[in-house]
């Protein structure tokens, strides 16, 4: 089949099933090319855990081991970063089961988490079983404030507060991640704030380029040199100071193996 025939066939298919256009737009290769003007390798430089801490052990609790959640190393990273601040003030976009904010609440003075209200999730066609899982681990924690709202419409400036650690883990489409990033840097950060983005990678080392493109477009170019990926996690971070880093690689390193002890809570 020649190129013209393929184009005609593809056009007819899109007319019949226009939702397939989203598959084309969301193609990872297209987003990777969008990142190339900013990052020659197509990946952020990597930081290892031992560049962030001398600690050798972290307790991650709670952890559900269910679909759609974070890796244990993601949650350990948040706890580690929160622990670098005295009386850490933490803000996150995207509560989900409440695992991330519950873990950080163990070491932070105060936590705030923002999520869509149940009514909007219902209107979006989300099943009741899914909606009912939200904040299951964080409800009732004394140092956690639960806010409801659509982050694309939320008045972040109205909070009138700066936070030490911010976790962006809401809707992962380009427009949403970029919008959340712009609002966080405009309203919530101070000179020493750390910002963490979840799902920068599909799996550690396998970059989710739509998220990376949104980060690069949402963060001022003069701050791009402070963007890193944290090895062995799904996270990218903005760190206010230079960190020892290396070229990104998805090759396993023997001295980065972890010991995992599993105990029912």
Description of the molecule:
With 265 residues, the chain is of the alpha/beta class. Helices cover 30% and strands 17% of the residues. The chain has 9 helices and 10 strands. The chain has helices spanning 3-16, 20-25, 28-35, 72-82, 99-105, 118-123, 128-131, 174-187, 209-218; strands spanning 46-47, 89-93, 110-115, 144-148, 163-168, 189-197, 201-203, 206-207, 227-230, 236-238. The strands form 2 sheets. Strands 1-9-10-6-5-2-3-4 form an 8-stranded mixed β-sheet, with helices on both faces. Strands 7-8 form a two-stranded antiparallel ribbon. α3 (28-35) runs parallel beside α9 (209-218), α4 runs parallel beside α5 (99-105) and α8 (174-187) runs parallel beside α9. The longest helix is centred in the N-terminal third of the chain and has 14 residues, at 3-16. The protein is globular, with a radius of gyration of 19 Å.
């Amino acid at each position: 089949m020649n190129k013209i025939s393929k184009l005609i066939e593809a056009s007819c298919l899109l007319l019949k099933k226009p939702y397939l256009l989203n598959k084309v737009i969301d193609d990872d290769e297209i987003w990777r090319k969008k990142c190339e003007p900013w990052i020659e390798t197509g990946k952020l430089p990597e930081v290892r855990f031992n560049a962030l801490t001398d600690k050798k052990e972290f307790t991650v609790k709670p952890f559900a081991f269910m679909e759609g959640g974070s890796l244990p190393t993601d949650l350990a990273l948040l706890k580690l970063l929160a622990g670098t601040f005295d009386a850490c003030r933490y803000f996150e976009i995207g509560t989900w089961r409440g695992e991330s904010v519950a873990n950080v609440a163990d070491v932070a003075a105060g936590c705030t988490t923002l999520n869509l209200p149940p009514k909007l999730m219902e209107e979006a066609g989300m099943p009741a079983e899914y909606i009912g899982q939200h904040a299951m681990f964080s409800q009732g924690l004394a140092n956690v404030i639960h806010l409801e709202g659509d982050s694309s419409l939320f008045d972040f400036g109205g909070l009138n507060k700066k936070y030490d650690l911010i976790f962006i883990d809401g809707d992962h489409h380009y427009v949403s991640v970029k919008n959340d990033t712009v609002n966080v840097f405009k309203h919530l950060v101070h000179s020493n704030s750390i910002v963490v983005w979840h799902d920068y990678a599909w799996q550690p080392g396998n970059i989710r380029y739509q998220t990376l493109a949104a980060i690069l477009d949402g963060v001022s170019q003069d701050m791009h040199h402070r963007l890193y990926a944290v090895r062995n996690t799904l996270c990218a971070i903005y760190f206010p100071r230079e960190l020892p880093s290396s070229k990104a690689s998805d090759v396993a390193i023997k001295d980065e193996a972890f010991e995992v002890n599993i105990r029912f809570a």
